[in-house]
Design brief:
Layout: H1 11-17, E1 22-23, E2 30-31, E3 34-45, E4 60-61, E5 67-70, E6 75-80, E7 83-85, E8 90-96, H2 98-101, E9 105-107, E10 112-113, E11 118-119, E12 122-127, E13 133-136, E14 140-148, H3 167-173, H4 180-230, H5 236-241
Antiparallel strand pairs: 1-7, 2-3, 3-4, 3-6, 3-14, 5-13, 6-12, 7-11, 8-10, 8-14, 9-12
Length: 249
């Protein structure tokens, strides 16, 4: 028996089949041959140099529409709002919308979802841009494509529904991430502090030179006055008394 060829699902197929595969399903989220997923109720953003205690940063719960930022050079886990299912006769591929990627947000997690998977998806992302990226819960930024396999496979996921961000993922990346932006800022801060210190030392040396010159002038003046006091001056009479008598012709 000939198996049907593997192929990506069209927008029409997505509109029909995803009603049973994505919860909640919104027909308007079908985008050409992909479906758009949104940011869900949990996130994790790696701490930077401005964090008081990086070891206390963990998964954060978001309210409806609550905003957050991913600083430049920082890493994050983003959870989808939707619960995604992949049937045994299909494979799914995931990415981030181009509009968001152009701002510097890069997907560094896996790029596919195995047959049989069911649950929320966790995206590992990295802000490779020069400025913070502002996002919020419910914002549609993820894309998922479905492709049919040549047959229904027995090599599939068969676990419980995955919900929330796995704490083990956070444990593996916990702590401050030294980004290029933070290192550049630290170098500039150290350079400025060193420049200020050199300037202060130069001012201090100038101050001590002035004080030393004044002190030296004072010592010289006192020494001259002291010498005048201890060396007696010769009077004109004494000079005449000691002078040799003139020889008469």
């Amino acid at each position: 028996m000939n198996n049907p060829p593997a192929m990506f699902w069209s927008g029409e197929t997505l509109s029909e089949r995803l009603k049973m595969l994505i919860e909640p399903f919104v027909p308007g989220r079908v985008d050409c041959a992909a479906y758009t997923l949104s940011i869900g109720p949990e996130i994790y953003v790696s701490p930077n140099e401005q964090t008081a205690d990086p070891t206390t940063v963990t998964v954060r719960k978001l309210g409806d529409g609550e905003a957050f930022t991913i600083p430049p050079g920082q890493f994050a886990f983003l959870l989808t709002e939707e619960i995604v299912s992949v049937p045994a006769d299909a494979l799914a591929f995931i990415s981030i919308r181009a509009k968001t990627k152009f701002r510097g947000l890069v997907n560094v997690s896996g790029f596919h979802v195995d047959p049989g998977y069911r649950g929320q998806l966790t995206f590992a992302v990295f802000n490779a841009g020069p400025v913070p990226i502002h996002l919020k819960r419910g914002q549609p930024i993820f894309l998922i494509w479905y492709a049919s396999l040549d047959c229904e496979t027995g090599f599939k996921k068969d676990g419980p529904v995955q919900k929330g961000i796995d704490p083990e993922l956070v444990t593996a990346v916990a702590g401050e991430l030294q980004s290029f932006a933070s290192l550049s800022k630290k170098i500039k801060d150290v350079d400025k502090a060193l420049g200020d210190r050199v300037h202060a030392v130069e001012k201090e040396q100038t101050y001590y030179r002035v004080i030393g010159a004044v002190a030296l002038a004072l010592v010289i003046a006192l020494t001259v006055n002291w010498l005048k006091d201890i060396v007696p001056s010769r009077s004109p009479s004494a000079a005449q008394a000691t002078a040799a008598p003139a020889v008469k012709p």
